[in-house]
Amino acid sequence: MMSTRRAFLSAGGASAIALSLAACSRSQPKTAQTVASGTPIAEPVLNDKQLAEILQRVQTGLAAADKEKNADKLKEIMSGPAARIRAAEYATASAGGNDSYIHAMSTKIQGGGVGQTVGFPRNAAVASEGDKSVSIISLEQSSARDQFKVWAWVQGFAAQASIPVLTKQSAQHAKQVTAETTGLVATPKAVLDSYVDALNHPDGENGKAFPDDNLRQKVQSARSTDLKSLGEVTVTAVPGQDGFQGLQLEEGDGGALVFTTLTFTVVYKRTVDGSDLTLQGDVAAHMGGNQKIVGTVTATYDSMVAFSIPKEGSGEKATVLGAETALMKVERDDSKTPAPTASAKPS
To answer: Which domain holds residue 329?
Structure first.
């Protein structure tokens, strides 16, 4: 049956979203100005120098946390899904004795921007240049007493790595986005729903709309796991519960950079009595001394994703810029073991 969700075709390349800091004081973050009526005026509250200092603090703190694989040390530099997913990477690296599960996040700025708002939370976005990939980072300041922390980050997909997602050119009005932000080819929530549908139905309308990116390949690889006719694998994706962050230009191309999350589960089920199925990789690392599938084993992954959503009427299409995925937990249910095969009656 054709999905009732609207399909959003992904262009071959993302449109450049030119977000940068408007001219601000280079001292302390500014408080909102007011007009004669007393109405606060929303304006950027950081400048380039301050943003660079925030990222340097994040890099220093992250290096210390990564070295010890200590999730408690993330509290001062990360929040929300970023902290949760980084902690999960530490757990998998420790369980498997393999630090490659801890993915690099670069904070060398290519470009950045800060949303204009009079309240909290306040959001910023940064594109940073690494040795092998581009990191796209969402920062959040929860209250006036809190420091900016990394709320989400993604590794830019190889096909999108050269796209100037955030540049230094002027963007005087960068509005913070919500799930239902309008003025775009689709709301952030609608784009996420369509992408999740593409993960669940790769041959469906939305599945054909989005390019075959790294996250889609990871999901398809899990779905294609060969259990030698002794079992079956089911993969299901759902939208995350973390909400949406990002920036929307009110001038120029009017596009938005949006960060959000999704979750997908991989259920490995043994279907043939007496069969011997053993898991490997990150899932096996979380299974301790018993890596065999007796009944079912369920692996749950969280992914941070970033979308470029063009302005309504632009003729361009929403696209996925990158993702960061971690294994959150592994659960086993040995009670779901297959029924014994009936023995043949003697003749």
So the answer is: 33-336
